[in-house]
Structure of Probable transcriptional regulatory protein GCM10011391_06720:
Amino acid sequence: MGRKWNNIKDKKASRDANTSRIYAKFGREIYVAAKQGEPDPESNQALKVVLERAKTYSVPKNIIERAIEKAKGGDDENFDELRYEGFGPSGSAIIVDTLTNNVNRTASDVRAAFSKNGGNMGVNGSVSYMFDETAVIGVEGKNVDEVLELLMEADVDARDILEEEDAVIVYAEPDQFHNVQQAFKEAGVSDFTVAEITMLAQNDVTLSEDDLAQFEKLIDTLEELEDVKQVYHNVDLGE
């Protein structure tokens, strides 16, 4: 599992280069989460997860507040949450989560991204069985033993705890996301290098240099689409 955080980190780094686009996507995601439940993260777990992830991407407070106020105002803009699955070069597996107010447009855009970059769309379930939904929380300034001890004291279960580069990464069941974070916060840790519920591949695949270049172009094209929220894959991107 040690390679997983590298893939998340690389995805985050690429997105950091396009902050205005990322902020706009988070604004939409926060609005949808706030509208689906109470616009208060303490009573709306979906909103809380989005806000915790937004914090690790340094989304400005005004963007968060604007999205929540829009939801409070009873705006009637509706979005559908849709998942697409497909294959990239050499059979690599890709999951694309979207938020859209125009299903036909989104389906067409995602399909075109695959077909123009060496991939093809699959049916529902064609690749998702190769992934596990996982809570991933990373902190700095702690070692594995310290993290294990504080989670044990809080009676919180984790799938794995690994030291990866400068951070300790906790992998846990999705329903343990808030419990893990709370255990850290009670231990005086409030800043996280990563805090999200993601889809992690059970096994990574390695592509040839040419296939990897085409694969990365496909992922970039998908992530640039306005309606795409998250892209997950099973390719080892290397160091």
Remarks:
- The chain has three domains: 4-72, 80-129+202-233, 132-200.
- The first strand starts at residue 80 and ends at 87.
- The mean pLDDT is 88.
